[in-house]
Structures are given as structure tokens and as C-alpha cells.
Amino acid sequence: MLVAALLSALCAATLAVADPRTAQIYIQPLATSTKPEPLAEISYDTLSLDATSVVAYEAPELPETADLVRIGLYDPKSSRWISGTTVASADNFSKGYSPHLLLTVDAQGEVLSAACKGVRVDAGQTRDFGPQAAVLVEGKGKQPDLNKPVVLSPEGRKVEEQEKTFLQKYWWMIAIAGFLALSGGGAEK
Amino acid sequence: MRGLSNSLLLLGLSSLAAAVFKDEVGDVDFHHALFGVPQPETTFFHRPRKDDKASLLYTLGDVGVFGAVNPSNGAVVWRHQISSNTTDGGGHLRAPEDEDWVAAAYGHSVHAWSAMTGRNVWHAEFAGQVKDLEIMEMTETSRKDVLTLFQEDGVTVLRRLHGTLGTIVWEFREHNKDIPLQVSTNIANIYVVSLHGSPSSYNLKITSLDTATGARVNDWAVGTKGDVHGPKDVMFVGANSAAPILAWADSSLSKLNIHVLGSKGKQEFPLASDTIDVAVHAPHKIQSQPHFLVHMKSAAGNRAEVHHINLKNGQISKAYELAHLKAQCAFSTSSEGANVYFTRTCEDEVTITSSESPAILSRWLPKKAHDLKPVHAVSEVIRKPGGEEFAVRSAAVTSDEDWVMVRNGEKDWSRPEGLSGAVAAVWVDIPEAEDLAKVLEQEAHTNPVSAYIHRVNRHINDLRRFPAWLQSIPSRLKDSILGGGAGPKETGLRRDSFGFNKIIVLVTRRGRVYGLDTGNSGKILWATQVFPQATDHALDVKGIVAQDGSQVIVTVSGSRGEAVQVDALTGELLSAVPPQGSVSVSSTAIVEGPVGPYLLQLSPDGKPIGPLSAATAPKNTIVIRSGDDMLKGFKLVADEDKVTQQEIWQLQVMPTQRIVQVATRAPHDPVASIGRVLGDRRVSYKYLNPNTVVVAIFDDAVSALSVQVVDTVSGQILTSQRFDGVDGGKDISCAIAENFHVCSFFGQHKLNDGTNRLVKGYQIVSTDLYESPTPNDRGPLGDAANFSSLEPVDTPSGPPLPWAVSQGWVISQPIRTLTVTQTRQGIANRQILGFMPESHGIVGLPRVVIDPRRPVGRDPTPAEMEAEGLAKYAAALEIDPRTIISHERDVVGVEGIVATPAIVESTSLVVAYGIDIFGTRVAPSGVFDILGKGFNKTTLILTVVSLFGGVMFLAPMVRRKQINRRWEVPT
To answer: Can you give the pLDDT at residue B513?
Structure first.
């Protein structure tokens, strides 16, 4: 049972490691009819979110008139947005801000929506003005917290959890005491 | 310590539950228990006890509620829903003569109920759809049985069910493509009537069966010459009578064809040339004479003909006719022994005639004030002991959709059955009769002389009311001293100082708008028919909004482009746009205009319907749900004089997913405190973004529910949770307010705590959003006064995202149509209101009960209990009967709940609508700002007076003593 669980966890871990995904984020000024342009490519893995990285980033060249931009995943072949799109101010890409790209993905890693938020760079603290990426994985729904299950013996009696013996409980204390007694023994004068 | 904390806990919990007290029932709440508009074929008088002459009035209304009404006062004796959902008419209800049960059928099920108490006798479920239900009055045994006609897939099935057990006695099955229509019996046989042929021209096919075995005896067809195109074209009358008949009119309404069951062929009768509608009335009893009445309606009035059937040869002969009357009349049949009486209930006249002769047996003239406009009626005629005197009572459905009892020409009672089937509701403040502030403002804007004259005139006008005011002083003084503390006493439609008097405007699916006064036990102030609907068409309301001002205007918009404006105080129709064939309104947006909110009708692709200029176009983002698979945000961009639509953002769902609900917060959602003080004196700051909605998305492929909080300005998904193993066929309901949202659904899933246990049941999940995971930290935005969903963040931190804390509970029964109470300032706690369809009640769950911060697996610390009122978490949430705000009232078929704040902070007004209308006041934190009824003003005044008397009496004594002491000679 335990072995099987361990094995499956291991398998899942290997699978997850073997499955980093990438997402192409596009950008389009709202008021114009220009085609969406690629903005960034993000590589992510739903099981190790620390590994999320911006593979490629191209600072958008936005027309002067554009004040709002649309961001999302786009399929240039079918000319359709293939994820939820969001809107952001063009100022998010201006100087002094580092664009934070946010991907909301479901548990399988499918992108639900993409967003971008510019965050002011503290020039005194860091030299890293580059874009950052973060992935928000759809959380598992909260389940009711049940009490510990009641374990019944084959006779149908409630099985009391075996009380640990003194030695099982406090062996580490005895070990420390012993260690102290052996090593220290007080300063010899 | 433990004992202490437990008792504290109990103390805390008991204060949470603000139960409804017995003396508040009927005072704070009201309930319209309704049946729906009674259907003519399922409404009748019936004697529930064999040896008792008293009869009850039974009906099955068009929303699927059936039951018994006391004919003397119109009170409900018992009531049941025929299906778990609101029906669109249909269903069957029959009562056997001299038996104490009634039989009902709808959909797959047939059931029998005790006629007196409404208790269930038996219940049976079958495949297919029930087409007819009839009582078999004559059987080979002493009991009476039930005949049910079902249509299965290509099979016509007739079952005879045991009257007292509900078991199958015999079954008749026939494989054919016919449409089963009706079943009927006479003394000899059972007849199954079905339509045979194609929709262009059906013939009537009649199969006669043996009563004892259900074996086929004979079948024959009756040609209709293309006059019958569907089941609705055949009138079938006199089931169970000695000579049941089938009748149908030709398309030009020039002649009526009648076939007597059991005979061959049909007989034709000419109809009057101005006939626009025809109906046939006949007795339903086997001992009654085989007479029937043909009711011919013309545009101006109506006339009738009475025919007799010769039982020996099946020949029909015309006996007499009732002359044309220029009034709206309803005919009804009543039989006593062999005698058959026809009652003609008109607006200004009620007459009884015997089926034998045209002589009028009795005549009454109802008062004009009754304003009867009978559409159809059922009657009970009683011959008074001694001979020639008659009494009649008729339960008539009027064209105002009221159910009225007319007893000997006098209106006895009236039930507002048209109020059932409400589909939309809006709260309206009663406009103030005279707003002093407005008058003063007006005076300030005119020149000094005219303002002065205006003012003097105003004062003189005010003086007129001075004597009345003087006269009212004693009574008001008496009331304020002797009367109980609580509640407003004023009657009449005006604002009260507590804000309890409001108008709720309801729109029914039949296209009628009602105004109810919630301060006066939900009295119906007015009812206006605005969108008359065809018989099997329901009004689909897409938006309703109230516009405050000196005249409160309620605007209602329907799905076919119809729109109407009604004065909320009088029900007067201010403007009406009829439905337009080509227009389809998929949603409406409430837009804040210069004079208040108005409705913007939107087509399925999000285009605004109707003219919009650059000045009136709303500037805000409009969010619409396009179909079941997309949520869109768009703006209307004014380009010179053209308004174009610009899509801003979209929320797509996967191909197997669908959006089940978009929960929005109430327009009035004040927040009293931006933080939540925790037990350890730290503060968790609430994530308070007014532009958020909760989107519930269901995935049919994997039965998972995804609950997403979406920023409606940017379209960004702020948080998202996915619940596995959710039943998409059951109700999924969410509500959002302040910084929390609540969802309820049915789920079955394995626990992921490692124990692999299975949880199955109705669940409620509550989620709080905070600015950051750590208390005392306000996240990336810090103390910034402004926040934009679009602009970049000006502090070097990170993108601001809410921190969600969730908890789930298993509840014992489904709760749907979740709503949150609203109070004026948002200081009082909130309650989550929901309808419990299984126990027919409305529950107000206190927010602390479904607080995600309830400690799991440990008792709360005293500090936590004091600061947050937390109780220990338990996975099973029992519905405390004290939290059921509808207490013992049986509220059925609630489709929506609306709440509004009163003027006093403690109280929120709530109305639940659907089949029934239920209204109440809830005080989630107790009525802390109103004196209770137990407050005794007399005692208080007496105490003050006696104290004053004591002081007056003692003061001179004390003074004298003090003076004496000074003058005392020191010893």
C-alpha cells in the first residue's frame, strides 16, 4: 500500500518534471485594429512553481494613442484569442516599471487567463528591471475537515491508539542528557 | 477552564441565533400562500367526508401547487407541490365521489392524498408521461380505482390502479404512433381516446376496453375532416358521466362537431355567427342526466345552448338556449342527484337554470364594486330545504387573475393567485409626500419677493393641518406612553422612521406587475397587466430597476424587447414598448444615468438596443454573459454621434465547461470596517474590491465546479478554486458581499487528507479574501488611498492579489438562491439567506457560523471568542431551527430572494418570491436600536414620577435638618 503510494507519487513527480509547459502571451492595443503581437513566452510547471521563467520577452511598441492594451494567449493561425484576456493600462510597460506577467492555469496546466501588471522598480535595491512571471494554479476546493476516522477492531470495538512507552516518547531527551553527561562533565579545574 | 469555555461557547452561539418570536409572527413577516391561477379542468368542489355535507374547494394551479381551500373563508387547508419544480400548467387532479381521497398526476408520477388532511395515501412512478387521469367510479368491487393514461415511447399505456393501495390492477398496452389524449368511463366501458394520423389532419381513434380485465372490446375512428390539428383542439367533457362526449369546432368556428362516446359517428350543430370561442360544460357524475351546455363567446358578450342526449340511441337534441348577454360571463355545472344546474356568473348578474328548462331558478345582482370579470368558474348549487329556494357559490377566476368566491351574488373572499409565478422583484422606497429640503431649495433659487410669498403661502397651508395636529396630540401621547416600544404604528402608505414601510414590486411570468406594501403585512397595493402572455408562453424578465425621485418609476425589460415603466406607488402605466418580433434581448445592464439608474437592453452579441447618444452612453465597463461559455467586458465608445461597442476583456471557458452562475454584489454593499481584528489583537485587512464578481463554472466532462473571483474592470482572475465530484444537475448557488463569497452545491468526493474517506452530500463553502496572508500587513498596495485594476503598482513590491481563506461544511439539505442581507451602514453582521426546497423554508445562516476562520480540531481561545466570535469547527453544519426565518410557514417554490436595508441599522428587509411570496424583517445582530415589545414605558414613567415625588418630599426635610444643624448650639 505504502509502496504503491510512494511509487505513484514518484511517478507523478517524474511526470511533472518531464512536463514543463510554455505559454505565448500576446498583446494588442485596444483602440486599434492592429494584430496582436507576441509579448512574452513563459515556461512553467504547475508542480514546481519556482521554476517559472520568462523564456522570451519583447518590449511592446505601442502607438502613442493607445492607453489600454489587451493581453492573452492568441492563436495566429485561427486569429482567435485562446484564453481569457485581460486589459491593462499601457503605462504598465513604461520606464521604471517591471512588467509582472501573471498566468492563471488550472490543475492540468491549461491557461485560463493571462494578465500583466507593472510594478515600480526600486532602482536602489535591484538592477533587475526585467519582466517577472508568476503562475497562479487553480486551487483545490476546500473540503470539509473531518475528524480522525474511528478505527474498529474486527470484533467491532473501538481500537484505542497504543500509548507510547516512556522510552519511546522521551528517548531523545535521555540521549541529550547522556550526551551532555558524557561530553561536558563540567569544567575540570 | 474547559467547562467555562464550553459554556461561553454556548452563550456565544445562543446570541447568534435571532429566532422569530411567536408574537412577531404576522407582525414582522407576511406570507402569500398560493396555488397559481386555478385551471378549469382541475378545480372542483368535493366532500372530503362521506357523512358530512361540508365540501372543500380543490384546485391545481398553473404553477403546480394543488390542495384544498376552505370555501367559506378562502384559507388554505392543505397544499402540496405536484412536482419538485414550478410547472408551466398541466397536471391532473380528480376526486372520486363519496371517497376521502383525491388523486393527482404529473410527469412520471401518480399519487393519492387524503382529501381532508392532505396526507399522502400512495405514490407510484411509471415510465413515460402521464396524459390523463380519471377516477373509475363503477368497479366490480366496492372501492373506486384510478385510471392513468401514459404515453411511453411509441406505446400507449392505460393502467388501472388500486384506489387505496396504488398497485396495478391491470395494464393495457398498445404499440402505435397515436397521441393518447384522454380516458373516460361510462357504465359499460372504458374509452381511450387518441389522435391518429398526421398533424395536418388527425382523426379521433377511440378504443373501448373491458372494465374488469382491460381487454380490448372494440375500436373505431371518427373522421374530423382536418379540423383537429393537435390535442388542444379537442374538447372533452363529461368524463364518468352517463354519456361522455368529444367536441371539436371547425376552423372558422361555424359549427360544432360532437361525438357521444359509445355511439357511432358525429353530430353537427351550427354555432352563432359572431362566436370567437366555444366551450362545452357537462356534469361529471354518472347519475346525472346526460345534458350539456355549449358556451359561445362573442366579442361583446356570450350566449349558451343546452343540449340533451338520448341515452338509448345517442342522439343529441337542442333543448333551449340562454340569450346573448353583453357581459363577461362564465358558465359552470353543478349536479345534485340526477338534477343538473347551470350557473351563469357574470359581471353584473348570477343566474341558475336547470338543465331541463330555460326558466331562471334564481337570480342575484352582484354589486358593481365587486368588479367581477369571471373567466371560468366552478359552482355548487344547493336546493334549500323546503323546496324552491336555491343557494349557489361559485369560485371564479377573474381576468385580473384573482380567485374569487361569489356566494349568492356577493363576493365572499378573493385570493390573489396571479401573484404566484413571480420572476423578478425590486425594492422601492415610498416617495416622500413633501420634501421640505426640496421646497426650501426651490425658494432659495427664486427672487426674494416671490420666495417670501411662496413661504407665507406655505405656512398658511401648514396652518390648515394645525387643528388636526393638535387633536392628534392626546392619542399620540397615549400611544407613546401605553403602547409597546417596538415598531412603527402608523398605517397607510408612507415612510416610517424605522424604514420598514417599503414597496416591493413583483413581475409575474404571466406579465402582470404587482406592488406590495411590506409595512402592512404585504398588502397588495396595485396590480397592472403590462405584458399579456399567450397561454403557454411565459414572460422572461431580463432586467428590473427602480428609479427614485418624487415619483418612483420601475422599469421592466423582457427578452423580446418589451419594456414598460410603472409608477411604483399607484401602478399606473407610464410607458410601454410592446414586444418586437425581430428584437432579442439577452441581458440588460443597470446604468447610472443623470436622473438615476436606467436599463440598457443588450442583444445576444452585446450590442445596445435602441438609440444611444454620446452623452447618454455609459462610461463604465459593462459585463455580459454571452451564452454559457463566455463572460465579456466591454465599453461603449462614443465616436462623435455614433456609439460603438469595444470589447475589453473576455473570460473563456473550456469546451466542456459552462457558466452556471455569475454572482454579483448588491449595489448597496457598505463596509463598516476595513480590517478584522483577530484574537491576538492583530488585524487582517479585508480585500475590498467593489468591482468583483464570482463566476461559477461547471465542467460536465469531469463533474468539477470552478469558482472564480474575477475583477470586472481588468478581467483578471483574482482567485480560483476547483471542487471535484460536484453534481451539475443539482442547484449550484453563489453569493458575494463585502470580502467574502459563499457557494452551495452537491458534491461527492474523496477527502484528500490521506484517509481516502468519501464525503457525499450538500456542501456550503465560504471564502474570505484578505489583502495579504499575514495579519497587520496590507500587501503590495499598503496604505495607498487609491487603487486601479489597470494602472501599474507604484511601490516596489509585487502585483496585488487577494489571499483566500476557505472552509467547507456538509449541510443536511440543499440551500439555493443564496443572498446576503443588507443593512444601512454594514455594521450589523450579515446573514446568508437561502431557500431550502426540501423543508420549504428560508434560512438565514449567520455569517459567524460559516466563518472560514473557525478553529479546526481545537477549541477557540477566549480571546478569539471575544474578538471574532469564533466557535469550534464541526464538519457537519446542522441547520438550527431558530435560524429559519420563515419559522413554521410552508414557503414553496422560491426562485429568488431580495434584501434591502431599513433606516435602522439593525434590520434588513427580505422578500422571497417564486410561487409564494414571503416577506420578513431580519436583524442579524439583534434589534439593538429598537426598543423591544417587553419595554414597559409605564413602569419607567412611574419610576421617574415616584422618584421625583420622593425628592420633592425629602428635599425640604433635608434642608430643614441642615439649617437646624447650623443653628445648633455647640455643646
So the answer is: 94
Residues in chain B within 8 Å Cβ distance of A147: 857, 875
Q: Do B792 and A84 touch (CB under 8 A)?
A: no
Sort out which chain A residues have CB atoms less than 8 A from B757's CB and list them. 146, 149
Name the A residues in 71-130 with CB < 8 Å from any B CB.
Answer: 72, 81-89, 91-92, 94, 97, 100, 102, 104, 106-107, 110, 112-113, 115, 117-122, 125
Smallest Cβ–Cβ distance between A117 and the set B719, B757, B799 belongs to: B799
Residue range(s) defining the domain that contains residue B476: 436-482
Q: Say whether both B879 and B945 belong to one domain.
A: no
Structural domain contains residue B852: yes
Q: Is A24 left (phi over 0), alpha (psi -120 to 50) or beta?
A: beta
Distance from CA of A65 to the nearest CA of B (A): 15
Number of CB atoms found within 10 A of residue B143's CB:
13
Residue B929 lies in a domain: yes
Q: What is the dihedral of CA B874, B876, B879, B883, to 10 degrees?
A: 20
Out of B633, B652, B796, whose CB is closest to A83? B652
Identify whether residues B835 and B944 lie together within a single domain.
no
* Domain positions in chain A: 19-137
Of A82, A113, A147, the CB nearest to B716: A113
Same domain? For B815 and B715 the reply is yes
- Quickly state the pLDDT bin for B2 (edges 50, 70, 90): very low
Closest approach of A92 to chain B, Cα-based (Å) = 5
Query: For residue B887, which of B84, B26, B83, B114 has the smallest C-alpha distance?
Result: B26
- Assigned domain for B790 exists: yes
Q: For residue B420, give the nearest of B512, B503, B555 by alpha carbon.
A: B512
Judged by CB atoms closer than 8 Å, whether chains meet at A91 and B722 is answered as: no
Task: Give the one of A83, A88, A138 whose C-beta lies nearest to B721's C-beta.
Answer: A138
Q: How confident is the model at residue B879 (pLDDT cuts 50, 70, 90)?
A: very high
Shared-domain flag, residues B861 and B789: yes
How many domains does one find in chain B?
3
pTM for the model: 0.87
Give how far Cα B185 sits from Cα of B188, B243, B258, B286, Å: 8, 9, 17, 9
**pLDDT 10s digits, B56-101:** 999 999 999 999 999 999 999 999 999 988 888 889 999 998 889 9
Do B940 and B813 reside in the same domain of the chain? no
The answer on B779 and B879 residing in a single domain is yes
Which residues, including other chains, have CB under 8 Å from residue B206's CB and lie 6 or more apart?
B191, B192, B193, B219, B220, B221, B222, B261
Asked if residue B748 and residue B727 are part of one domain, the reply reads: yes
Helix axes B466-482, B448-464, angle to 10 degrees: 60
Neighbours of B164 (CB within 10 A): 15
A16/A22 Cα distance (integer angstroms)? 14
Residue B69 forms part of a structural domain: no
pLDDT at B576 exceeding the cut of 60: yes
ipTM over 0.85: no
Q: Which of B449, B482, B515 is the last residue of a domain?
A: B482
Give the model's pLDDT for residue B722.
94
Q: Where residue B462 falls among pLDDT bands split at 50, 70, 90?
A: confident
Nearest CA in chain A to B756: A149
Chain A residue closest to B781 (CA)? A119
**Looking at the structure, do residues B865 and B963 belong to the same domain, yes or no?**
no
* Residue of B654, B767, B810 with shortest CB distance to A110: B654
Question: What residues of B are in contact with residue A84 (Cβ under 8 Å)?
Answer: 649-652, 715, 717
